[in-house]
Design a protein that fits this description.
It is elongated and about 65 Å long. It is built from two helices and no strands. The chain has 108 residues and is an all-alpha fold.
């Protein structure tokens, strides 16, 4: 939640952006889980029969989410570019303000 005294940030609206952000978080968490399981494998040498299945599937889940992120990011970039291939400008302010706060560029 954004405090009201801070100036509004400029942003683009893109239909793929929310999904891309969610998949980015999933990529990070799946990598963290896979690395944690790998550290456990290296330090504790677990012996349950299901352990190899869990360890391999953690890395598989990471690769799958990474591939999904690559596709979503490509779609997001393609949608945000103009017909000329140049990136779209993000000049719209989210709250409908005409201009940012006059003290926006001033240091504290």
């Amino acid at each position: 939640m954004r405090p009201d005294h801070l100036p509004s940030a400029r942003r683009c609206t893109n239909r793929f952006a929310p999904s891309t952000r969610r998949v980015e978080r999933t990529v990070c968490w799946s990598l963290a889980a896979a690395m944690l399981l790998t550290a456990t494998e290296a330090l504790a040498t677990p012996t349950p029969a299901w352990w190899p299945w869990v360890w391999h599937n953690a890395w598989t889940a990471h690769v799958i989410t990474l591939l999904c992120w690559i596709v979503l990011r490509a779609l997001e970039k393609a949608e945000s570019s103009n017909a000329d291939g140049e990136p779209a400008r993000c000049d719209a302010l989210p709250c409908g303000d005409e201009s940012p706060d006059e003290n926006f560029d001033q240091a504290a």
